[in-house]
Specification:
The chain is of the alpha+beta class. The protein contains twelve helices and twelve strands. A six-stranded mixed beta sheet has the order 5-4-8-9-7-10. A four-stranded antiparallel beta sheet has the order 2-11-1-12, covered by helices on one side. A two-stranded antiparallel ribbon has the order 3-6. Strand 4 and strand 5 form a beta hairpin.
Length: 386
Amino acid sequence: MKKIFSSILLYAGLFIAFILVLSCLQLYENANRLFGSKSSDSNYWLTFSKKITPDNIGRKELLGFNENDIAKLKQWQEVKSVYPFSANEFKASANGGDFIPFYTDLYFEGVDLKAIDAPLTEEEFQVKGDVIPIIISREYLNLYNYGFALNQGLPQISEDFAKKIEININIVVNKQNKTYKGRMVGLSNRIHSVLIPKKFLDSLNLAEKPQLANQPRIFNRVLVQVKDSGDEGLITKMKENNFESNQESLRSAKIKSKLFLVLNIIAILGIFIFALCLYIIVSFIKIQFLEKQEEVSIKNSLGYSPKKMVSDISRRFSINLMIVLILSLGIIAVGQYFIAKSSVSNGLLSMYINPLLWTAIIVIPILVYFFVKELIYRWLIKSWKI
């Protein structure tokens, strides 16, 4: 009876260990789906601007980023790349013609294409004739569809249809009016702006203000690729330099980093419990051999291989371990299904657990089988000299 109770406690401990470790692995994947993947190749992007104070209001040389500021940014350990925005120095406006009757002044920006999260080539994103390719924030299109269009009785526009629409763009350079056609070629989740090709924008700026060629360049904003937007060192440096960024991005990154820290602690706890159970199992098997020392000695003298005796016990334990793993993964799979169906997932989570987790049913018992078998066999040979 005592042995049965001990075995129940032992396998209960293993069950808890597997639930902790395997659920943490699945939750880690869920967190990546909800907050964005974090790996050596992951890209975190923040748009930096300088905080407005009474001392720098209206002073572009103080509000903007000069070459020294950008050089210092590139030296930050937390920063991978820096991409300054060019902004229009000329007047620009747009109207939708007869299809969408609107008029608005425009603010253009330009940035290196490799910093833009739109699948476009240099060939696709360049001015051809009088057609200017435009990339806008996806939020701007949503704002039009669910705000402006609904309230003003205007037609809503899908992403595919928006790329077929041309708008009239009026640009004033050196007091000369120039008319272009603007065509949306992509949407950006990363950058909240109206982007046109950087080379084209810079050329118009020089045409409007030739003196810019001989002056140090000042950039209103910079797009920064960082290693981890939740890095406390990065946030501290931003505060010290009066840099601002999207607080929601920083907040979600902080939540993600704290969540991963908790998951790592829980996983380590699970691994510790598993190691402790493994130690107890090895000790339990040793006790079984000690209790049957005479029987084992007789079997050995009759030619019964000690390795086979150890192998039989290890195999039985591995099979029990496999059953515990199946139960653990079954419970995690059920939990994942209900989490994915809930409103918390926002449709981003899979209803099924990562297929790689199911390989644990085979891999862990096999590894444990060989580990226990080798450990017990060596102890048996060394202690009993058989």
